[in-house]
């Protein structure tokens, strides 16, 4: 039987948060959770679905932006199937979806909303039946969830990768892919631009941890789904994992790690506890195995 891993993540520790007024909090909550004095906040960090260039390498020969592949048809299928299974797997509602600016992550979010559509149908026609309901759950973009910004992670960067304008990852253009009823463009991102090119792995790790913590702290009364890249999910799992270097951590497409912490509302302020990592590997698509000795 698979056991549930419970680890305190001190990197995510937060003591108290800036007070929010009751009125502003009411406008923030899209699928209103029950307001108890003491409750739990859940943050799900998910990898995107299957990318097109992995399934059809010939796509690269004609792609205008080979560094930003969309989902393959099987990726849309994976996202839609995940949408139908996720409520039962999690056992709690998602109130907000925040995604990396890359097309495969935006497509994954749309696939989760469009759980009942077939691959040839327009994802903008989604009603959320069987998945996330765009009338209650909204999508926003944050550069802090972007792919690790170096040659190791990005196989085909533009000719001048240090120039952010060459990437074409502009927020208005990305938001145009999202149906208006599923978009929240009022959220201020944690990171408003891409990292510096040739970002190191430690810098990417710090960026992911800071982004996850900040997003959770900004929305303490909501459960979040963060759609990002494999490295961010790996960081979420490996942080404070005892002897983490001894393990090889892999994740399936749409695999996810789940964080949980206690949130106490005191008048109009919030106090939060430490996050725990809850990972039933057989269910979430995370694979953690001991490394083979050299």
TrEMBL record:
From which residue to which does the signal peptide run?
none
Q: Name one Pfam family in it.
A: His_Phos_1
Q: Which domain of life is it from?
A: Eukaryota
The record's annotation in InterPro entries points to: His_Pase_superF_clade-1, His_PPase_superfam, Phosphatase_SH3-domain, PRIB5
User: What is this protein's name?
Assistant: Phosphoglycerate mutase family protein
């Amino acid at each position: 039987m698979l056991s549930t891993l419970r680890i305190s993540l001190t990197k995510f520790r937060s003591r108290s948060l800036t007070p929010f007024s009751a009125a502003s909090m009411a406008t923030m909550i899209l699928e209103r959770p029950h307001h108890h004095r003491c409750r739990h906040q859940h943050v799900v960090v998910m990898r995107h679905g299957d990318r097109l260039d992995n399934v059809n390498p010939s796509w690269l020969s004609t792609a205008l932006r080979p560094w930003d592949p969309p989902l393959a048809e099987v990726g849309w299928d994976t996202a839609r199937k995940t949408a139908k299974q996720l409520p039962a797997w999690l056992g709690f509602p998602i109130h907000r979806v925040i995604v990396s600016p890359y097309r495969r992550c935006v497509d994954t979010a749309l696939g989760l909303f469009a759980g009942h559509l077939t691959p040839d149908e327009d994802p903008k026609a989604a009603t959320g039946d069987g998945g996330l309901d765009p009338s209650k759950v909204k999508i926003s973009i944050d550069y802090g969830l972007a792919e690790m910004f170096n040659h190791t992670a990005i196989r085909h960067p533009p000719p001048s990768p240090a120039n952010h304008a060459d990437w074409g990852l502009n927020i208005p253009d990305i938001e145009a892919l999202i149906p208006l009823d599923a978009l929240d463009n009022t959220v201020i991102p944690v990171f408003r631009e891409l990292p510096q090119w040739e970002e190191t792995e430690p810098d990417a790790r710090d960026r992911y941890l800071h982004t996850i913590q900040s997003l959770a702290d900004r929305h303490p009364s909501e459960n979040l789904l963060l759609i990002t890249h494999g490295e961010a999910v790996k960081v979420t799992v490996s942080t404070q994992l005892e002897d983490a270097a001894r393990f090889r951590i892999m994740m399936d497409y749409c695999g996810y790690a789940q964080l949980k912490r206690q949130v106490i509302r005191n008048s109009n302020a919030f106090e939060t506890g430490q996050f725990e990592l809850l990972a039933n590997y057989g269910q979430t698509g995370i694979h953690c195995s001991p490394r083979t000795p050299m």
